[in-house]
Amino acid sequence: MPNFQDIRILLVNDDAGSLFALNTILSDLDAEVETASSGTEALAHLLKHDFAVIILDVKMAGLDGFETAKLIRQRPRSKYTPIIFVTSHRSTDLDRATGYELGAVDYLFMPVVPEVLKSKIQVFIDLAKKHRPDKHGQPGLDNQCLRKELENVTRLNEALRLELDAYRSAESGASPSGPERLIIQHTGDYVALLDGNANWVYASPSYQAKFGKAIPVGETYFNVVHPEDHDEVKEAFRTIIRSNGRTRLQHKVVVPDNSEMFFETEASLIRDGDGQVKQVVLVSRDISERKEMESYILHQSFHDSLTGLPNRLLLEDRMKQATAHLGRQRSPVGVLFIDLDRFKDINDTLGHAAGDRLLQEVAERLGQCVREGDTVARLSGDEFVVLLAGLNDVSDAGLVAEKIVSTVAEPCHIGGRELRVSPSIGIAIFPNDGENIDVLLRNADTAMYHAKQEGRGRFSFFTAHMNEAANCRLAVGVALQRAIAEDEFILHYQPKVSADTGRICGFEALIRWPQADGAWISPSQFIPIAEDTGRIDPIGKWALQEAARQIQRWTAQGADCCPVAVNVSAQQFLRNTVANDIAAALHESGIAPGLLEAELTESAVMSDPIEAIQALQNIRKLGVPISIDDFGTGYSSLAYLKRFPLDKLKIDGAFVRDIASDPDDAAIVIAIITLAHSLNLTVIAEGVETAEQMSFLIEHGCDQMQGNYFSHPVPTDEALELLRRGHFNLTHMAAGGLRGPRVYNA
Fold it and tell me: Comparing C-alpha atoms, which of 50, 248, 60 is closest to residue 143?
């Protein structure tokens, strides 16, 4: 098989802007692009490599394109290499015929449509892939065919050249001279004759039509030159007078209607019989369209096409400038690495169009949070970076991050939906956290993951110990893939206790990951990593299936089963696959739908309330109860809450922890109980650890309780034993303040 990496394109142009533009256009083809800024440099490249095709400029300083092509053809290994002339210069039929005679397979003019150029080049790349030169450098079969075609083109172009010569001889009559000859040779160009002081002697009709009275004879040529280019054009004029040579330059001119044109000008001398400068000839062509194209390509190369923000290339350039300049002053530079929490779920659920619009909205909001001299860039997907140059104090980066968190978290209205997305932000500071770009970005990225682990929707400054945590996270991510494939997870079950009777009225299934050495990896450690790496879906589906199977086993063993709640990840819910997963688990196990309960977090439901209503209704149609976990920590709107088809609310353990000592937490818990009952919802308090907490909840009408005060999450056998032993003696537990499961047979 051929090595495609050896397929090369040679791009030859002495204009840096054109060279960059063409290189950018061709950079995504399946070939390596080598560039040369002169004919001599191109020939040097040919001594080292063979090329699938050569893209060659016509007008170049030193060896021009035609002369370079002749030398290319004299070398045996490149005698039949395809040549495409790409030029911004107007040409006559004879010019094109000369190009074809030298073996050109095409003759194109700038600005060239990128897709057209790439499609032409691709033909020769494909040809090179199929037929490589043999060990003696002789072309393969297809190259021989190309040789015959080029020979045919040569004969045809020679005939065309002779025909053109004959036509011109018949039509021209007397040979024109002076300005008339220049106009004939450069029809459509802007031809100027100047004296030795750069005053106008003659202006072609094209000048007269475009500039009118702006170029009266006797005035200086520099009057039409753009002020930005005055000095450069004057210096070029003086140089050509001194050096008795030719020069070419690009510059802008100002048209009387105050518009601008971009000229490419060739300047040469005309001397009298005594060798004195008689006139300076300027032949200019309008390359404004080409410059616009170059500017567009340059902008596209350094900016994100979706948001218009700087991309990674421009960000790195600005970081280099900021760290180089401010590094001498030891002034801190802040790098904020921003990732949108659970953006992939929104993108997968609502489609890329909605996701793109959300990214554009976030980009606008980020711009509102920074100073004019700061940089907001988009790296890829939902990753953004903010560069804060010249901070007065390191803490200022935290103030900006705090502003970004609150601004981005505001609701977005896209496609008739209210969407919420929160940013997790990692902050690295130059020079303390790194003195080069790669280290700063890597450390800011590490700090961002720490912010996610701390609960998302927040920011975190980088610290040295985070690198150790990042390496651990990487190892866990790799191990997760193995754990899924080898079925390493198990479920433990924590009972829910009725506040009225003490009877076990349900279980919550909690996933556990035992290790070969007897250790356990905490769900708080591996679940966020599973969510970030896209591995949570198979884990969540397995948990539903395993819980349903366990209910079926307990029933078969004669236990009086109660509902088992399974946590559903936000990603599963937002992709609207939960109902299908639950239906499959019910079908496989054959259990009653009411015995399997779906437990979702408040933030997952509220990320897209309109879509959530439909997803919840799909679950409800299966006959499966639905509970909202961690209630009070999200953004629930009562207007939506009453529309959700819910059965239960779980009060987050953070509020339960201090209800016996903190009046604010006590008031919040009482308010949630009252709210839930007004909506006919069952209230469950989780995280119950003490007799005082239990007594408070019973006193204020909480329906169910869950926590280590009753039982830690236990394996299946112990859970079955709890079911068989009976209910908890709440009176005894409250009166004696005794901790742990105190049960007796009913």
Answer: 50
Q: Is the pLDDT of residue 726 over 90?
A: no
The residue-averaged pLDDT of 24-40 equals 86
Q: Which is nearest to 508 in space by CA: 687, 647, 706, 697?
A: 706
pLDDT at 149: 47
The pLDDT of 317-345, averaged and rounded, is 82
Which one, of 511, 520, 521, lies nearest residue 547 by Cα? Answer: 511
Smallest CA-to-CA distance from 270 within 246, 254, 251 is with 246
> Which parts of 255-332 are beta strand (E)?
260-271, 277-286
Question: How many residues in the chain?
Answer: 746
Cβ count near 147 (within 10 Å): 14
pLDDT for residue 137: 46
| Amino acid identity at 392 | N
**How many CB atoms lie under 10 A from the CB of residue 609?**
21
Phi, psi of 691, rounded to the nearest 5 degrees: -65, -35
Helices 141-172 & 93-101, crossing angle to 10 degrees? 150
Q: Which pLDDT does position 294 carry in this prediction?
A: 79
For residue 400, CA distances in Å to 378, 424, 458 come to 17, 13, 12
Distance CA 81, CA 46 (A): 11
Q: Strand 596-601 vs strand 504-514: parallel, antiparallel, or unpaired? A: unpaired
| pLDDT given at position 417 | 83
Per-residue pLDDT, averaged over 266-274, amounts to 77
**Left, alpha or beta for 416 (phi > 0: left; psi -120 to 50: alpha)?**
left
Ranking 319-328, 459-468, 692-701 by mean pLDDT, the lowest is: 319-328
Q: Which residues contact 621 (CB under 8 A, 6 or more apart)?
A: 579
d(CA 9, CA 43): 13
Q: Would you give the distance in Å from CA 590 to the centre of its chain?
A: 46
Angle, to 10 degrees, between the axis of helix 523-532 and the axis of helix 437-453?
Answer: 120
CA distance 694 to 669: 13
- Is residue 435's pLDDT more than 70? yes
- For the cut 80, the answer to whether the pLDDT of residue 185 exceeds it is no
Which 8-state DSSP code applies to residue 420?
Answer: -
Q: Is 735 exposed, middle or buried (0-12, 13-18, 19+ CB in 10 A)?
A: exposed
Query: How far from the centroid of its chain's Cα atoms is residue 9's Cα?
Result: 28
- The per-residue pLDDT for range 198-208, each reduced to its tens digit, is 998 888 888 88
Cα–Cα distance, 218 to 245 (Å, whole number)? 24
Residue 194 main-chain phi, psi, to 5 deg: -120, 155
Cα–Cα distance list, 394 to 327, 330, 397, 401, 441 (Å): 14, 12, 6, 12, 17
Q: Could you tell me where the beta strands, DSSP code E, fall in 60-145?
A: 83-87, 104-109
Question: From start to end of 88-243, where are the E strands?
Answer: 104-109, 190-194, 200-203
Rounded CA-CA distance 408/343 in Å is 12
Q: Per mean pLDDT, which range of 22-26, 418-422, 740-744 is the poorest?
A: 740-744
Alpha carbon 362 to chain centroid, angstroms: 13
Are 54 and 82 in contact, with CB atoms under 8 Å apart? yes
C-alpha to C-alpha distances, 713 to 492, 687, 718, 719, nearest whole angstrom: 5, 12, 9, 8
Q: Are the C-beta atoms of 743 and 727 separated by less than 8 Å?
A: yes
Q: 94-104 as b/e, with b when 16 or more CB fall inside 10 Å?
A: ebbbbbbbbbb
Residue 301 CB: number of other CB atoms within 10 A? 15
